[in-house]
Amino acid sequence: MAPELQYREVNEKLFYNTNFPYKEISVILNTGPSIFRNIVIYGIGDKSEILENLRDNYLSKIKTIFFEANSIRFRTRMFLDAINEECKLNIIFSKNDFLQYANMIKDEIDKRPKTFSLALLINNCDNDELIYDTAFHDCLKIICSKKKVFFIATCTYPLFPPPGSSAREDLRCYFLKFSTFNLSVNYNNKDDAMDLDDDDEVTHKVESIKVVYDSLTSNTKKLFVLMMQQFIKNNFKSIFSDDVFLSAKDRFWVNSVSQMQEMITEFLDHKFIEKCHDLSGKIKYSLRIKRTVLNDFMESEGIELEDEDDDE
């Protein structure tokens, strides 16, 4: 049975770069065989500089890899590829079997000298994708199953690994509460602005949107229309990923958050929308198409400006 998770609250919150208990983290990491294998720092505000200070001042003698989980490009594959590349494991793997890939990485790391250690620093690990991404949880379990590898993650609430999951039990995390109340550069509070730059209006014309729209699969088209309708309903302000997912799932267009995210990548790549996060780490999308252009496009396609289900 895994040990009972310990929660410790740190009261000093104003200047985290001086008040954060780095020595306490150092003690946890250097006590030899420990019931705690990994560390999760949770609380309000961005904690990226905490991870950077740990990397530069307390973990400088071992291999470290920093991950920004709020990045739109952060996926299980990218996570595994980064470990493979940074550790120079020279694994060639093109399949989508992430568990097999993770096991190959674990086996290669296990061949390294006993003095080798790897710290995975994951900032904002409690965003929507990772909370529901069981494949990522399983890969993290596999790679961190050896004493040579551990992770230090940050989040807003102690929800990673997800409570009740096997990852929660197997990863044996020490939970330390510490709030910085600092905004991350990845948080974008300007996404609710009603007016966008002129460049956005020039870039997005009805014709260019139509070219992309016509190339989409049937369900991806439906998802695009749903999101545009939600933007309109929300007075062109940002919308939450959770709301989009629930609506799309109810219509049987998607089965999982990861599937929806793959479809939405098309909209992000063409800068129709922009991904951002609120202070709790929840994913939001803001519209990058001028509302007049969007209205003209939807009218030209005969698409209702409002979701018909809203009237039921």
> What coarse outline follows from CA principal-axis ratios?
elongated
Show unreliable segments.
1-18, 185-202
Q: What structural class do you assign from the helix and strand content?
A: alpha/beta
Q: Might you state the CATH topology name of the largest domain?
A: Rossmann fold
Q: How do the helices and strands follow one another from N- to C-terminus?
A: EHHEHEHHEHHEHEHHHEHHEEH
Domain Origin recognition complex subunit 2 RecA-like: 38-160
Keywords: DNA replication, Nucleus
Pfam family, one: RecA-like_ORC2
Function: Component of the origin recognition complex (ORC) that binds origins of replication. DNA-binding is ATP-dependent. ORC is required to assemble the pre-replication complex necessary to initiate DNA replication.
Question: How would the blueprint of this fold be written?
Answer:
Blueprint (H helix, E strand, L loop, with lengths): L6 E3 L6 H4 L2 H8 L8 E5 L5 H11 L4 E6 L7 H11 L11 H13 L7 E6 L4 H5 L1 H10 L5 E7 L10 H5 L2 E5 L20 H6 L2 H10 L2 H16 L5 E2 H10 L6 H13 L3 E5 L5 E5 L3 H10 L12
Parallel strand pairs: 1-6, 2-5, 2-6, 3-4, 4-5
Antiparallel strand pairs: 7-9, 8-9
Subcellular location: Nucleus
GO cellular component, one term: nuclear origin of replication recognition complex
Family: Belongs to the ORC2 family.
